[in-house]
């Protein structure tokens, strides 16, 4: 598919993003930009397939079908020969380049930022790695996956129950956090390049993405020495803040926090607001205090006597923040999900079938995003992209002969 054949929509139309990433963090970041109209060209290597792509009927690569929708695929070896030449040609008109390699890998290929800026001074280069591009050399070159980012970034230690081993949080939190940080840096660099004509180098370390989103806990430790305690399914500091089991066995999450909520919640559980235990203006009921024990006992009794849907309705009518703990089967039938079209479907790019998935997020009122294409097959757009850059049919054929290009005929390879 050529550029002129791609629909123009969204606030990022006209922004070209070259994606050199695999797995989750980078494709997620680029997928968000593509949903809002950016022209994303995903470059995949003919030497090694993205493990997140579909591999067989049992492993359908659902995540990749989400994150590579709205994009074009060029399967080309960018490290050597004509592939390197045409990669540099592609960068001349690119606005953002994202790579997802270990720290320093692009420089090892003879492609440090300075070389890429000689090709395109306005290019914003986003490096996504586990440990960053600088620091202790023995760390910079380490490989990383989501669980490593969670473990090294002090995040995993906070998840689970205090009497058990720390647990990995799902789904792939450090990958997605890193993806968000990559987009923030990418767009900041792009905006500044429009003003100054100078590109930017964005260094996203997976573990630091985790740290930045642990602000309260990190600052608390650094200033008081207090380490966080794994809370499990209930706050260890606030009563009425956690998961409760209803009469029908369905869990519900409730959060009683703030003077306004406390004022509404206490009477809902048959307790007296304004009493010695729950004075007027109470902002939080301390877990483990006498008042906290009374409130917890009253809440457990209440939920044991009501089905989850009924309990949720009563809580919401009283102004108490709560929600049944949803799974996708519940969500699919929820009227709010349906009204907002949170789930949607789109047509595959390689056959007449459709795939269901999550709609464009965030929703924009004046320049909304859209889903116009499903995940392309590996190398589906090789010829169109290279011809746009000026490659002749003979040059493209030679690159196939030299194994610099590859094209797959099915989603499974």
From TrEMBL:
It comes from the Bacteria. Keywords: Transferase. The keyword Transferase applies. InterPro entries: CoA-transferase_III, CoA-Trfase_fam_III, CoA-Trfase_III_dom3_sf, CoA-Trfase_III_dom_1_sf. GO terms for molecular function: transferase activity. Gene3D superfamilies: Crotonobetainyl-coa:carnitine coa-transferase, domain 1 (3.40.50.10540), formyl-coa transferase, domain 3 (3.30.1540.10). PANTHER family: L-CARNITINE COA-TRANSFERASE, SUCCINYL-COA--D-CITRAMALATE COA-TRANSFERASE. Belongs to the CoA-transferase III family. This is Carnitine dehydratase.
